[in-house]
Design brief:
The chain is of the alpha/beta class and 382 residues long. It is 34% helix and 11% strand. The radius of gyration is 20 Å and the shape is globular.
Length: 382
């Protein structure tokens, strides 16, 4: 486990940095935050600019660095970038798309270049559900192939699953499938209605709690680790469960030895702009890929300067600016709610988490005043 995990200061550097190396992708996923297109944008960061960004990641000592897209395999310099990262001591995870471009040879070359973890998406327990989610037939089978190929060469595998209205009915089957796969981490994403993601696909607060219950139950016995993305209130749920278990005399520890690789887990409190930074294909710096508010561009400023000093990032790290029940919540320092989802539904990144059912003690809930689906649709440029 990385010793930096428990000492990192979110005001000084991020725990996770994600670089969207391209928005080009041959899939048309229904939830894609990037609204990816088939062709690469000529304004993408160049190879030299990408290497300079990686050098900055190394200087910041960011524990987790992810190359994402679009589909990173669309970049011909991908192996060179991974090799440079390895040379300067940056461990890289990659999220390729499960298209015909993702072959066994590519997986082997990624491993040889120095990739630390392969992260592939699985959004259903069946080809029918997953392929409909991804907009391409055969994607489910290619994902399983990629997992098998990575296992064969000892490359750690992460599975990303986004839960929404389109696959929530299959949650038990998806959990069962995860238990059968040889993976290091299951990253459970929760929809943020931005990009192609639609408001009508968003789960309710009670449904979030239901997914939390399934994930927490699995976390006790799974041979792999589990994390959530854009569900910061899962940390509140876990603490509540552990307190309840202690009071009842039950033990909450895992009974299985987990798969471990050298990429550590984030400490509590990680949030959009707070220990997390996202760099777009054009060099724009965002609090996350789901919160489309730019704090600057690495073509004009160093990443460290933007992350540490931009008013946007500083405000997002200041929990005193949280509004509604998030501002009054006793869990706000370890949770803070999804700032991206708050912004997507209200236009205000400091508003309360729209999909949290917990009400802080003594808090009187005012009438909700979210923007309508029609307004949100216009804001997204759809």
């Amino acid at each position: 486990m990385n010793p930096q995990i428990n000492t990192i200061d979110f005001n000084e550097r991020p725990f996770i940095a994600i670089w969207e190396v391209t928005q080009a992708c041959d899939l048309a996923c229904v939830h894609c935050r990037a609204s990816a297109q088939p062709d690469r944008n000529p304004l993408e960061l160049s190879t030299d600019e990408g290497k300079h960004l990686i050098d900055q990641i190394a200087a910041l000592k960011v524990p987790v660095f992810v190359l994402t897209g679009g589909d990173p395999i669309k970049r011909p310099d991908l192996f060179e970038l991974i090799g440079h990262a390895r040379f300067v001591g940056v461990r890289v995870s990659l999220t390729p798309s499960a298209t015909p471009l993702l072959t066994k040879d590519i997986v082997i070359r990624l491993n040889q270049a120095g990739l630390a973890r392969l992260a592939v998406s699985m959004d259903g327990a069946s080809a029918e559900t997953h392929d409909a989610f991804r907009g391409m037939s055969g994607s489910f089978a290619r994902t399983l192939d990629a997992v098998r190929w990575a296992n064969e060469i000892g490359l750690p595998v992460q599975i990303n699953t986004t839960f929404s209205r389109r696959n929530i009915a299959e949650i038990d089957e998806i959990v069962a499938l995860m238990e059968k796969l040889k993976i290091t981490l299951w990253s459970v994403f929760f929809l943020v209605p931005t990009g192609r993601g639609k408001l009508n696909d968003l789960l309710t607060a009670d449904e979030f709690e239901s997914v939390f219950a399934k994930v927490y139950s699995l976390s006790k016995t799974a041979s792999f680790d589990i994390k959530t993305t854009e569900a910061q209130h899962y940390r509140r749920y876990v603490l509540q469960q552990k307190v309840a278990e202690r009071k009842s005399g039950l033990h909450s520890g895992s009974v299985h030895e987990r798969s471990v690789d050298a990429i550590g887990r984030a400490p509590r409190g990680l949030n959009d702009g707070k220990g997390f930074v996202f760099i777009s294909h054009k060099g724009e710096v965002f609090p996350s890929g789901f919160l489309p508010l730019s704090a600057g561009n690495i073509r004009e400023q160093e990443l460290a300067t933007i992350y540490r000093d931009s008013p946007l990032f500083r405000d997002l790290r200041d929990t005193s600016k949280l509004e509604g029940k998030c501002g009054s919540c006793e869990f706000k320092e370890i949770c803070g709610g999804s700032r991206a989802r708050a912004h997507a539904l209200t236009g205000n990144p400091h508003a309360e988490e729209p999909c949290c059912s917990y009400v802080p003690k003594g808090y009187v809930q005012p009438a909700q005043q979210f923007k309508t689906a029609t307004t949100l649709h216009v804001l997204q440029g759809a």
